[in-house]
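User: Structure tokens for this complex, please. No commentary.
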Amino acid sequence: MATSPSRPERRQEPLSRERIVSAAVELLDTAGEGGLTFRALAKHLATGPGAIYWHITGRSELLGAAINAVMTTTIPGDDTDATPQEAIRALALGVFDAIEAHPWVGTQLARTPSQSPMLRVFERIGRQIQVLRVPAAAQFTAASALMSYILGVAGQNAANTRALQRDTDRTEFLDSVAAAWAELDPDEYAFTRSVAGQLRKHDDREEFLAGIDLILSGITARRGCHAACTPTTRGPDS
Amino acid sequence: MATSPSRPERRQEPLSRERIVSAAVELLDTAGEGGLTFRALAKHLATGPGAIYWHITGRSELLGAAINAVMTTTIPGDDTDATPQEAIRALALGVFDAIEAHPWVGTQLARTPSQSPMLRVFERIGRQIQVLRVPAAAQFTAASALMSYILGVAGQNAANTRALQRDTDRTEFLDSVAAAWAELDPDEYAFTRSVAGQLRKHDDREEFLAGIDLILSGITARRGCHAACTPTTRGPDS
DNA sequence: ACCTGAACACCGTTCAAGT
DNA sequence: ACCTGAACACCGTTCAAGT
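Assistant:
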């Protein structure tokens, strides 16, 4: 394959922010969070570690850029004729799937609180909350609750996947946790023991969606009375 | 203060797992997650780094023990004559306060999924769910949703506190975020802009509790019909 | 402007050697 | 049994020097 001699010859692609970030994602996917090293990344790009610093400020910017790259490609576009509930579920599943494909994202997502990738999700959840006719004063709470729930599941999924890396199978892993739960002290862990069976046969995805539905129920149930109809009023403890 | 000469003299307290862990908590509180170093910890305990390894396996066990120590002292005991909702709120606030006092806990909590400190919280939330007469098949989902929400807020709070460390004031920080939101593209971030004002005057604690109440509403509203009365059935997208 | 790679100031962890 | 601290194999980041 001869390259046109008129163009400046390039033995290899020149370094660029884009190439660095996509190599970082690849490294994170294959070697995990601890595998992303400037030295390993430099070797992957056939250069020295210092070269990367010309394009990127440091490790945390690199991680942020990697998360951004993954999130923007995975989050689904708007489906115009979906109900608000369906749209929110699709959005949530987008985040869920991104973390299933790239477990390291789950750990890092919470670290970018009011920043780019999750802010876009927040915005789109919020719009659906508005479509649901939640009163203005309760919209922030509703969207925040959904976001926090999604981020919480994200973190736990990431942790589970990491713990699962040595175990062979996903169901085998759930079985071992369920078995551990079933052996807990019956007095101290009566509830946990009682749901151990449900843990064994549950589907992570379905469980995640069930939680979303639960919160959506709360949002629509309390529509129009967000301050007035608290189940029990918060008062002095005595 | 003379020590009895019959006992073996101790120039300093002997090393122990307990002393190491409490020194680690102190170090984490003052220097943050990055400040916990075996060398720094050893200096704090007036010994060499190798000594610590006689009592603790490694860094991750040390972090886990530190979290455990903080969580067990902060989570409130059972208040026997509280409503289930009040008990769950008290529990959730216990976790919230632990993270406010020790921000590094928030980042690490999710990493211990089915493990000791959060499992105790899960158990006690679950018991209250049972008191609420949620049908058995829906109990796991309800308790899990509350846990995920709590862990999600925990992670975000930890991230916020870290970002806040250089800023002077908490309200000043919220103001700067709100100001940033207000300057976003009106087309792309219409919702986010519209709630920027609520962010500025909101109280983290109240907001957190409002989210708990929202989920509790969902749990009680759907009591007895967890599978049947989904707002809109999940079906094929087309 | 962009790349190179040695060098600096750190890490967690191990382990022979001491008491 | 328990502690010591030098040593090993790493890190992220910087920076003079090259092209």
